[in-house]
C-alpha cells in the first residue's frame, strides 16, 4: 500500500502561519476530502504538498521517504500531481492535443481516453468549445494521463453548477478505483464527503476534524463545530 503522509506540517505565507501542525495520511486507492471555510488554508496545504510553496515545519513523505525538499517537478515525476484551481486547459488545442501534452506515450493517451469515454466523441474538438464540465473532465483525463500516484484536486467545481460537478464525481471515483490516492479540496462539502472515505476539516489553519467522511456527512453538528473551530458535541453512547 502506497501512502502520502504529512507529519506536523506548518506553512507560513505573507503575514504569518496559514497552516499549523497538520498530520495526515492519504492511502493509494482512497479519497480524502479536505474541507473548511474560506481562507482556512486548504489551497496552501495542497501547494505545500506539490511544492508550489515550502513548509515552515514538519515533513512530507511518499512511501516513507521525505520529499519536502524536492522541487515541484521532481515531486510531479514521483507521481504527485496537483490540479490547481481553475480549468487549466489550452483552449485552442484539441482534446487529444491537450492529453498529449502530459502523456509520455500514445498508450497513456489511449488509457486516458478509455477511462473517460465521455470525451471520445469530442477528441478532435477545440477544448475551448467544450462546456465547463467537459473541460474539467479534460483536466482530469490529462492528470490521469500523467500517471499520478496521488492527485491533489483544488476546487474542481469552481464556476460549475452543483449538478455539473456531480457528474464529475464518479470520474474521481474511477481514478480511485485505478489505485490513485486523491486529496480533494471542495466547497461543495457534502458532495465531496459523499465520495470520500476519510475527511479532514481545517479552520484557521488548524485541523478541527479528522476521521471518517461518513461521520461528518451524517452529523451536521460535528461539521458545524469543525467549521467554527469550536469543540464538538459529546458523542452519544449506546
Ligand atoms: N500568495 C499569498 N500570499 C500571502 N498570503 C496568502 C497567499 N495566498 C493565500 N494567502 C493567505 O493564506 C491564507 C489561507 O489561504 P488559502 O487560499 O490557502 O485558503 P483556502 O482554505 O484555500 O481558501 P478558499 O476556500 O477561500 O480558497 C489566507 O489568509 C490567505 O489570505
TrEMBL record:
<dbReference type="InterPro" id="IPR052156">
    <property type="entry name" value="BCAA_Transport_ATP-bd_LivF"/>
</dbReference>
<dbReference type="InterPro" id="IPR027417">
    <property type="entry name" value="P-loop_NTPase"/>
</dbReference>
<dbReference type="InterPro" id="IPR003593">
    <property type="entry name" value="AAA+_ATPase"/>
</dbReference>
<dbReference type="GO" id="GO:0005524">
    <property type="term" value="F:ATP binding"/>
</dbReference>
<keyword id="KW-0547">Nucleotide-binding</keyword>
<keyword id="KW-0813">Transport</keyword>
<dbReference type="InterPro" id="IPR003439">
    <property type="entry name" value="ABC_transporter-like_ATP-bd"/>
</dbReference>
<keyword id="KW-0067">ATP-binding</keyword>
<dbReference type="InterPro" id="IPR017871">
    <property type="entry name" value="ABC_transporter-like_CS"/>
</dbReference>
<protein>
    <submittedName>
        <fullName>ABC transporter ATP-binding protein</fullName>
    </submittedName>
</protein>
<comment type="similarity">
    <text>Belongs to the ABC transporter superfamily.</text>
</comment>
<feature type="domain" description="ABC transporter">
    <location>
        <begin position="4"/>
        <end position="229"/>
    </location>
</feature>
<keyword id="KW-0029">Amino-acid transport</keyword>
<dbReference type="Pfam" id="PF00005">
    <property type="entry name" value="ABC_tran"/>
</dbReference>
Amino acid at each position: 500500500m502506497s501512502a502520502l503522509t504529512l507529519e506536523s506540517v506548518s506553512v507560513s505565507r505573507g503575514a504569518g502561519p496559514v497552516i499549523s501542525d497538520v498530520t495526515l495520511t492519504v492511502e493509494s486507492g482512497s479519497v480524502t476530502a479536505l474541507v473548511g471555510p474560506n481562507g482556512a488554508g486548504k489551497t496552501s496545504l495542497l501547494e505545500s504538498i506539490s511544492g508550489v510553496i515550502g513548509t515552515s515545519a514538519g515533513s512530507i513523505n511518499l512511501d516513507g521517504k521525505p520529499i519536502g525538499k524536492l522541487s515541484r517537478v521532481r515531486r510531479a515525476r514521483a507521481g504527485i500531481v496537483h490540479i490547481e484551481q481553475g480549468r487549466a486547459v489550452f483552449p485552442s488545442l484539441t482534446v487529444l492535443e491537450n492529453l498529449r501534452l502530459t502523456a509520455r506515450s500514445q498508450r497513456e493517451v489511449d488509457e486516458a481516453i478509455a477511462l473517460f469515454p465521455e470525451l471520445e466523441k469530442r477528441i478532435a474538438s477545440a477544448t475551448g468549445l467544450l462546456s465547463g464540465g467537459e473541460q474539467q473532465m479534460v483536466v482530469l483525463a490529462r492528470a490521469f494521463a500523467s500517471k499520478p500516484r496521488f492527485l491533489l484536486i483544488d476546487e474542481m467545481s469552481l464556476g460549475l453548477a452543483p449538478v455539473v460537478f456531480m457528474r464529475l464525481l464518479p470520474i474521481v471515483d474511477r481514478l480511485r478505483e485505478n489505485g490513485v490516492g486523491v486529496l480533494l479540496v471542495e466547497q461543495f462539502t457534502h458532495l465531496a464527503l459523499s465520495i470520500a472515505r476519510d475527511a479532514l476539516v481545517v479552520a484557521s489553519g488548524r485541523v478541527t476534524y479528522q476521521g471518517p467522511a461518513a461521520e461528518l456527512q451524517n452529523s451536521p453538528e460535528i461539521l458545524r463545530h469543525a467549521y467554527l473551530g469550536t469543540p464538538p458535541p459529546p458523542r452519544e453512547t449506546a
